[in-house]
Amino acid sequence: MTDLEAHVSQKGRKELVKQVRAKINELGIQYIYYQFVSVTGRIVGKGVPADHWESIAERGFQLVYGSTANLFVDRFKNYIGYGPEASELVGIPDPETFCQLPWDKRVARVFCTCFRNREERVNPGGHLTSDCRGNLRILHEEFKKKHKGLHMRHGCEPEMMWLKKGADGLPDGGFSKPNCYHIDQFESLRPVFMRAIEYSRAMGLDMIQGDHEDAPGQLELNFMFDDCLRTADRLTTYRQICAQVAREFNLIACFMAKPFMGVSANGCHHNISLWKGGEDKVNKLGLDNLPGMEENFAYLKGGENTFLPLKGQSKPGPIGLNCIGGIIKHVGALTAIGSSTVNSYRRLWDTGFWAPVYADWGYQNRTCALRISAPGRFEYRSVDSTVNPYLMAAGILQAFDDGITHKIDPGEPEERNIYAAMAAGKKVKKLPMSLGLALEELEKDEVIKKAMPDEMYKVFTHYKRDEWEKFNATVTNWDLQQYWDYLP
User: Fold this and answer.
1) Which parts of the sequence belong to the GS catalytic domain (predicted)?
2) Which of 6, 12, 48, 145 has its CA 20 to 30 A from that of 378?
3) Three-state SS string across 3-50, please?
4) What is the pLDDT of residues 325-337, one digit of tens each?
């Protein structure tokens, strides 16, 4: 049996497919987006009339392999990852992710897992290793088996900016003033964020805290933490929601890491913990009024948080400390995933805005790459809002595995401002300060490279090295302003 056949025939799936058909009929769904996620976190796929649900659920749809790399060409006009002669992947929908779109209730979306074509000579119907979402599921299951049921749960803080749209369709400044936590600036965006919250709740996100951050039009709207695959799916969904809300208000929903210098960037801190046990509980918050299937609104509840401090101590327990040690050891390579664009490094170079530059950890210490943000979890700060959350979660799992397996000691937490500690003589490793340097760190790190098996690593590095080379081969406004009258 191929991987594709095993996925389609897994226990309970046929019943879920039937439940989706009942929901399609009940809600009057006419069209379905079958979607997966590319190397950069972009949402790609196909749309199909809902009449064909059963056949697509069993047979899938086909799309060129290169769609996992946005069907993008490098600076030499070669397709990234796969040439035009490559086969077509098979996308198989995961029925538990079926959900109606609240802004057009005739349409639904479902996430898909990608497989190699059935007619391939090598590994026909095998898992497509350039499918970042499918990889995360596989890697997390392997992690659970190796570590006796330990599983990762995390939440993220997706900062983004609502920008005004100029007559040319390009950004024309932030909608509000850069006043952090200012309720009046938050209020100025109330119609926008309330629409985003309404749509998010309708699509199964348990929305919690939100605020105005300290950049123009910058909001952070958070949702409840969960299993790492669900959290990645929900961040992807949240981005789609923001894009739709922007269309409705003629704004730009900007997830670019650093649109403006001199104000804070768009970070996407990950708050992470490892758990044993727990079970899915349906989110009862307004469930009767929510469209879609109950499975969309389930959350992992209960279990034992292994990051909690031992009795009478403030440090995380042994597992948490080893995981911190793993992150510190591999933070250079992880930076290539968490700060994945050329622009990401503007965030690290613009000093004074708490972006992490040094590989250390501490309690509530925002000058470090990791901080203990609350008992039972730590915040990984070296990640911005352009992140592909599936790759990031997979990379973190690999660092955790190394830390636990080899009992890596992260050292004592740094309670001083890291710059004061360094002035006093502390030696601290600095994060790579450009995409090029981060990719060099990734190339040397065999542990983190396992988070991107086989074709995924080839696609990622081809795409990102080309991005770095294109930047280096471009004359910018800075070049002109700096050098146009350089001589005589």
Assistant:
1) 132-488
2) 145
3) HHHHHHCCCCHHHHHHHHHHHHHHHCCCEEEEEEECCCCCEEEEEEEH
4) 999 999 999 999 9
Residue 287 has pLDDT above 50, yes or no: no
Q: Which CATH class is domain 140-453?
A: alpha beta
Place of tokens 């046990």: 277
Question: What is the crossing angle of helices 228-249 and 190-202, to 10°?
Answer: 140
The larger pLDDT score, comparing residue 54 to residue 354, is at: 54
Helix or strand run (H / E) with residue 322: helix 318-338
Burial 283-322 (b: 16+ CB within 10 A, else e): beeeeeebbbbebbbbbbeeeebbbbeeeeeeebbebbbb
Domain boundaries, the chain: 3-130, 140-453
Quickly tell me which residue has 């938050």 as its tokens: 186
Count Cβ atoms within 10 A of the Cβ of residue 471 and give its class: 0-12 exposed, 13-18 middle, 19 or more buried. Answer: middle
| pLDDT, tens digit, 9 for 90 and up, residues 296-314 | 567 888 999 999 998 878 8
Q: Which residues 6+ apart lie within 8 Å of 409 measured at CB?
A: 321, 322, 325
Alpha helices in 45-93 (DSSP H): 53-59
DSSP annotation of 65 reads G
Q: Which residue has the higher pLDDT, 295 or 336?
A: 336
CB atoms within 10 A of CB 421: 20
